[in-house]
Design a protein that fits this description.
The complex is a heterodimer of chains A (375) and B (507).
Chain A lengths: L6 H10 L3 H10 L3 H9 L11 H11 L3 H11 L3 E4 L7 H4 L7 E6 L8 E5 L6 H16 L3 E4 L5 H10 L8 E4 L13 H10 L1 E4 L11 H12 L2 E4 L7 H11 L3 E4 L10 H8 L4 E2 L3 H5 L12 E4 L5 H10 L4 E2 H8 L3 H13 L3 E4 L3 E4 L4 E4 L1
Parallel strand pairs in A: 3-4, 3-7, 4-5, 5-6, 7-8, 8-9, 10-14
Antiparallel strand pairs in A: 1-2, 2-6, 11-13, 12-13
Helix pairs in contact in A: 1-4, 7-8, 8-9, 10-11
Chain B lengths: L1 E10 L2 E12 L4 E5 L4 H4 L1 H11 L9 E7 L11 H11 L6 H4 L2 E2 L2 E2 L5 E2 L4 H10 L4 E5 H7 L6 E5 L2 H8 L31 H13 L3 E5 L5 H7 L9 H13 L11 E2 L7 H5 E2 L4 E2 L1 H4 L4 E4 L7 H6 L1 H6 L1 E5 L4 E5 L3 E6 L18 H9 L3 H5 L3 E5 L4 H6 L6 H19 L12 H7 L4 H14 L3 H18 L6 H9 L12
Parallel strand pairs in B: 3-4, 5-8, 8-9, 10-17, 10-18, 11-14, 14-17
Antiparallel strand pairs in B: 1-2, 2-4, 6-7, 12-13, 15-16
Helix pairs in contact in B: 2-3, 8-18, 8-21, 18-21, 20-22, 21-22
Chain lengths: 375, 507
C-alpha cells in the first residue's frame, strides 16, 4: 500500500516528470507541498514560475476528478511500490549523488542498505567472451555477498543479472534500473528475466508508468545505476558507449570503476581497454580484484584445478593445443592426430568436465574461468 | 453396335480397373464421353478422331458415338484412355473383333498421326492390375520398361495404332518385352568427399547420417561448404535394393518419370516452395517432394527461409515415414521415408562464429532467427553440426580427404549390421527405430548412463532428444563394428546434439 503522506510528492513528480532539478526547485519554494497544491487548485501560479507551463497544466490536471486516487490504486493493483527521497527507506548511497531521483517506482524488495551493491554494465551486442565473464562475475559477486546492479538490457547487463539469479537463496541478488516505465518490458523477449527479478530482486525506475524506452532516457537512467553502487564493473564497451557514460558518472559520484581487459583487436573491448589505459578504471581479472577494494578479500574465485598428468594422452594434446589459443576441430585434428571420431568424443568429455568450452562455429577454447590446469 | 476394352485408372498409388465402352448408333451425329471424365479425358475425342482418320481407319463421323468409362462414380484423369477408346470405337464400328480387347489391358495416349505416346503412372497401374488378375498389357513403348519389371506379366510395347490393330487382327506380329530386372546403381554426385578440404567433423557427421539414415542439420557461415557437403552425400549412400527401386519407381512414375529409378533420389526444392509442393497435394492429391525423396535425400537449403507451415508439415512424415494427402475428393497415402539434410546460416548476417568476418546481428535478431525452426522440428533432427569457413590459404594447403568410395564401404557395412538387426528384407535403419527397439538394441552401460546424466544436466535435453542420441550412438557403434554402445560412441553422439544458436534464448 502506498502511504498517503507520499501523495503530494507523487503529485509533483507526475507534473514535472523525471526532472530532479525542477522537482527540488519547487520543494525549495514550498516547504509544505500542500500549499503548492492549493495554489495550483486556485490557479495562483506566481510562485511556480520556475516550471514550464506544460508542467503547471499537468499539475492542475492531476488535482482534478480523483486522478490521484486512480493513480495510486493502479500502482497498488500492479504491485508497484514508491519510495521518495525524503523517506528513510530511500537507498542511502543514492542520496549522496548530485541529483538523486526524488521519486522511485519499484517492484520486488528494495533494501535501503545493501551490503555491497556493485554495478555490472556493458555493451548489448556482446561477444561470447563478454557473455561468460558477465555471468561468472554476476554469480560470484553475489556469492560473496554483493548485489548486482544492472540495466536489464540484452547483452552484458542481462547476463550479469542472469548470473546473479543463478545463486539460489541469495539475499538481494540483483537490482535492475529501467530506462522506461515500471510496467514496460524492454527489450521484448526479456519477460522471463523481468519476472524473475521482480520476484527475487528489485526492478526500479524514476520514469512515469507507461513511459516508452526513449533513447534519451538511458543516459539519465545510468546515473542511478552508478549512484546505487559502490563500484561499477564494465565488462565490454565499444568506442562510444553508454557504459562509458556510466563509468564517467561513477567517477563524478566518487565511486570505484573497474574494467575487464580485452584483446586490442576486439571492437567490443575498445572502450574498456581505453578506460584502463587512461587510468580511469582498475583492471580486473578475477572477482577478488574487486572485493579487495572493499576489504572483502575473503571469498576466493571459483576455479577448479585439474592436474595435467591425470589427463589421457589425447586430452593432454588437446589441452596443449588449446593453451595456444582457440582452435576449430580441423585444426585440432591436425595438431593432435587420432581419428575424427576419437577426437570428437574426447572433446565432449573435456567439455563436460569444464576444462574446455565450445564457441559458435565448432571452435573450442580452454575454459579458464572454470578450470585451472596445473602442469 | 456396342463394344468394350479394358483399361486402368489410378488413385494415389493404387490402380482400379476401368471398362471403356463404346456405342455407335443412329441419330444426330454426336460424341459423348461419360463416367466423370476430366478435361484431358474429354479432349480425347479430338485425338481419337484425328488418330483414327490419319491411321487410315474409318471414323463414323455421321453417327452418334457414346463412350462410357466404368465405374461411373470414380473420376478418370489423364490421357491414358485414348488407346482403349480408339480400339473400342473401331470394334463397335466392326473393324476389329471384340475378344482381344477384353483379354488384355490397354494404356496409352494417341498422337494425331496415330502414334502412341507415354503416360504417367503405368507401373502402379500394372502392379494393381496384376493383383486383380490381369496378365497381358499393351502399353506405350516409353512405358514398356517400367511395366515389364512386374513379375508374371506379358508386356507388349506399342508404337502406333495401326501396328497394334494389325496385330489384334492377326495380320502382324508383336513381341512381348522380356522381364526387366532392376539393377540398382550407386549414386553419383558432382563432388567426391575427397574434394572437400577440411571440415573433418562435418564429413564425419554426414557419414554417420548416411550409415543410419539420420536427419542432419548443417549450420555454418556462407562459403563453409554446406551445400557442397550435402550434394556429396549421394556419393556415400549405399545402393538401393531391387524392392526399394520398385517402390521409388512407382512414385516417380506417377509424377511423369519414364523408365526405372535405380539411383537413390536427391531432391533439393527451393525455399519458396509451397506446403502442397513439399508434402503433396493439388486437386488430384499428387505426391510432393518428400515422397519423391523416398529412400533418398531431401535437401532443404536455407532451412529457416522455408515457410513456417512447410516446415511444420514435415514433422509428421519425419516421424512416420508416410504422408497422407487429403483433398475434398480423395485421400492418398504416399511413402515418405527420406533422409532430411537441412542447411542454415548461424545468424541472419551469416558471420556468427566466423573468425575472419564480424557478425553484425543483435542477440534478439539471432534469437528470432533461431526461433523460426520450432523445437518439435529440431527434436526430429538427429545430428547437428556447425561448419566454419576455411581460409583460402588453408584450402590450398590441405591434403585431400578420404574418397567417397571408401567411406561408402563403411556405410554399406554399417547398413548390413542394421539388416541383421531388423531382418534381411527390412528397409529399416537405426534412425527409424521405435522406442521398444531402442530399449532392446541400444542398452547403455553404467558408464554411459553417467555420461548421459551429465548431458542432461548441461544441455537441457528433451526426452525425444535423449532417444535421438541413443540412436545416433547405435549407428556410431555400427560404423565401429561394435556390438555394444561404448562410452566413446555415446560421447561422440552427444557432440552432434550441440548447436550454439539454440543457446541464444536464455534472455
Amino acid at each position: 500500500m502506498i502511504d498517503p503522506s507520499m501523495r503530494p510528492e507523487l503529485w509533483l513528480h507526475y507534473g514535472v516528470g523525471p526532472n530532479p532539478r525542477q522537482f527540488s526547485a519547487v520543494r525549495e519554494e514550498y516547504y509544505y507541498l500542500e500549499e503548492a497544491m492549493e495554489d495550483v487548485a486556485r490557479g495562483r501560479d506566481s510562485r511556480l514560475t520556475m516550471i514550464s507551463g506544460e508542467a503547471r497544466s499537468r499539475l492542475k490536471e492531476a488535482l482534478g476528478d480523483g486522478f490521484m486516487d486512480r493513480y495510486v490504486r493502479w500502482m497498488d493493483k500492479n504491485g508497484v511500490n514508491v519510495v521518495t527521497a525524503t523517506s528513510y527507506e530511500y537507498p542511502a548511497l543514492l542520496k549522496e549523488i548530485p541529483d538523486p531521483p526524488p521519486v522511485l517506482f519499484y517492484r520486488g524488495t528494495l533494501n535501503m542498505d545493501m551490503q555491497l551493491p556493485l554495478a555490472i554494465v556493458g555493451i548489448r551486442r556482446c561477444t561470447e567472451y563478454g557473455k561468460e565473464v558477465a555471468k561468472k562475475f554476476g554469480r560470484e559477486l553475489v556469492k560473496a555477498g554483493a548485489t548486482v546492479v544492472s540495466g536489464l538490457a540484452t547483452g552484458i547487463d542481462g547476463y550479469a543479472a542472469l548470473g546473479a539469479l543463478s545463486v539460489e537463496g541469495a539475499q538481494d541478488p540483483t537490482v535492475a534500473v529501467l530506462g522506461c516505465g515500471i510496467d514496460v518490458v524492454y527489450p521484448q523477449g526479456n519477460e522471463k528475466l523481468y519476472g524473475a527479478i521482480a520476484e527475487r530482486g528489485c526492478l526500479m525506475t524514476e520514469f512515469l508508468p507507461k513511459t516508452p524506452p526513449l533513447p534519451r532516457n538511458f543516459p539519465q537512467r545510468n546515473r542511478i545505476i552508478s549512484g546505487l553502487s559502490l563500484g561499477v564493473l564494465v565488462v565490454e564497451a565499444g568506442e562510444r558507449s553508454g557504459s562509458a557514460v556510466t563509468a564517467r558518472l561513477a567517477l563524478e559520484q566518487g565511486r570505484e570503476v573497474f574494467a575487464i581487459p580485452g584483446r586490442i583487436t576486439d571492437p567490443m573491448s575498445v572502450g574498456t581497454n581505453a578506460m584502463i589505459r587512461r587510468g580511469e578504471a582498475k583492471t580486473v581479472t578475477s572477482v577478488s580484484d574487486i572485493l579487495e577494494e572493499f576489504g572483502e578479500g575473503g571469498a576466493g574465485d571459483e576455479v577448479r584445478s585439474v592436474r595435467f598428468n591425470e589427463l589421457s594422452p589425447l586430452e593432454q594434446r588437446v589441452v596443449k593445443a588449446l593453451s595456444e589459443g582457440e582452435k576449430n576441430e580441423d585444426e585440432l585434428l591436425e595438431r593432435c592426430g587420432g581419428g575424427v571420431d576419437e577426437l570428437i568424443s574426447t572433446l565432449t568429455g573435456l567439455t563436460f568436465s569444464g576444462i574446455i568450452k565450445q564457441l559458435p562455429g565448432s571452435v573450442y577454447a580452454l575454459d579458464t574461468l572454470e578450470t585451472n590446469i596445473v602442469y | 453396335m456396342l463394344s468394350q476394352a479394358n483399361s486402368f485408372g489410378l488413385s494415389g498409388l493404387k490402380g482400379f480397373p476401368v471398362k471403356v465402352e463404346a456405342d455407335i448408333s443412329g441419330g444426330l451425329p454426336a460424341y459423348e464421353t461419360v463416367g466423370l471424365p476430366d478435361t484431358a479425358v474429354r479432349e480425347s475425342r479430338e485425338r481419337v478422331r484425328a488418330a483414327l482418320k490419319n491411321a487410315g481407319f474409318d471414323y463414323p463421323s455421321d453417327r452418334r458415338i457414346t463412350v462410357s468409362l466404368a465405374p461411373a462414380d470414380l473420376r478418370k484423369e489423364g490421357s491414358v484412355y485414348d488407346l482403349p477408346i480408339a480400339l473400342a470405337i473401331l470394334s463397335a464400328n466392326g473393324q476389329l473383333k471384340q475378344a482381344p480387347l477384353v483379354r488384355a489391358v490397354y494404356l496409352g495416349e494417341l498422337a494425331l498421326n496415330g502414334q502412341v505416346r507415354g503416360v504417367n503412372g503405368v507401373l502402379p497401374m500394372v502392379i494393381s492390375a496384376r493383383e486383380a488378375g490381369e496378365s497381358v498389357f499393351f502399353v506405350p513403348r516409353e512405358n514398356a520398361k517400367e511395366a515389364a519389371c512386374v513379375e508374371g506379366v506379358r508386356v507388349f510395347p506399342v508404337d502406333d495404332l495401326s501396328q497394334l490393330v494389325r496385330f489384334l487382327r492377326g495380320e502382324g506380329d508383336m513381341a512381348p518385352l522380356p522381364k526387366v530386372e532392376f539393377s540398382p546403381e550407386e549414386g553419383e554426385s558432382p563432388w567426391d568427399f575427397a574434394d572437400i578440404r577440411g571440415q573433418a567433423a562435418a564429413k564425419r557427421a554426414a557419414q554417420i547420417a548416411a550409415a543410419g539414415g539420420h536427419n542432419l542439420l548443417l549450420c555454418g557461415t556462407p562459403g563453409s561448404g554446406k551445400t557442397m557437403l550435402a550434394r556429396a552425400i549421394p556419393s556415400i549412400l549405399p545402393p538401393m535394393t531391387p524392392a526399394e527401386c520398385m517402390e521409388v519407381t512407382k512414385i516417380h512414375s506417377v509424377m511423369g518419370h519414364r523408365g526405372l529409378v535405380t539411383v537413390r533420389p536427391f531432391r533439393a526444392p527451393h525455399h519458396g516452395a509451397s506446403a502442397a509442393a513439399i508434402t503433396g497435394g493439388g486437386a488430384n492429391a499428387l505426391p510432393g517432394e518428400i515422397s519423391l525423396a523416398h529412400m533418398g535425400v531431401l535437401f532443404l537449403d536455407e532451412f529457416p527461409e522455408f515457410h513456417r507451415d512447410v516446415l511444420e508439415s514435415l514433422r509428421q512424415p519425419l516421424e512416420d515415414g508416410i504422408v497422407t494427402v487429403s483433398r475434398t475428393r480423395m485421400s492418398c497415402t504416399y511413402p515418405a521415408s527420406f533422409m532430411l539434410v537441412a542447411a542454415m546460416n548461424p545468424c541472419p548476417c551469416g558471420n556468427r562464429g566466423s573468425r575472419t568476418r564480424q557478425c553484425t546481428c543483435t542477440p534478439s535478431q539471432i534469437h528470432r532467427y533461431a526461433r523460426r525452426i520450432s523445437g518439435p522440428l529440431l527434436d526430429r533432427i538427429d545430428l547437428f553440426i556447425e561448419m566454419n569457413d576455411v581460409p583460402f590459404e588453408d584450402l590450398a594447403g590441405k591434403e585431400k580427404g578420404e574418397p567417397s568410395a571408401s567411406i561408402r564401404k563403411r556405410v554399406v557395412a554399417a547398413r548390413a549390421r542394421q539388416r541383421l538387426r531388423f531382418g534381411e528384407d527390412s528397409t529399416k535403419t537405426n534412425a527409424r527405430m521405435s522406442v521398444q527397439e531402442i530399449e532392446a538394441f541400444c542398452p547403455l552401460n553404467s558408464r554411459c548412463q553417467a555420461l548421459m546424466e551429465q548431458a542432461f544436466l548441461r544441455m537441457d535435453l528433451s526426452a525425444r532428444a535423449y532417444q535421438r542420441i541413443r540412436k545416433v550412438a547405435r549407428t556410431i557403434a555400427d560404423l565401429d563394428g561394435s556390438e555394444q554402445i561404448q562410452e566413446k560412441h555415446l560421447a561422440e553422439a552427444i557432440r552432434y546434439r550441440r548447436l550454439s544458436i539454440l543457446g541464444e534464448n536464455e534472455l
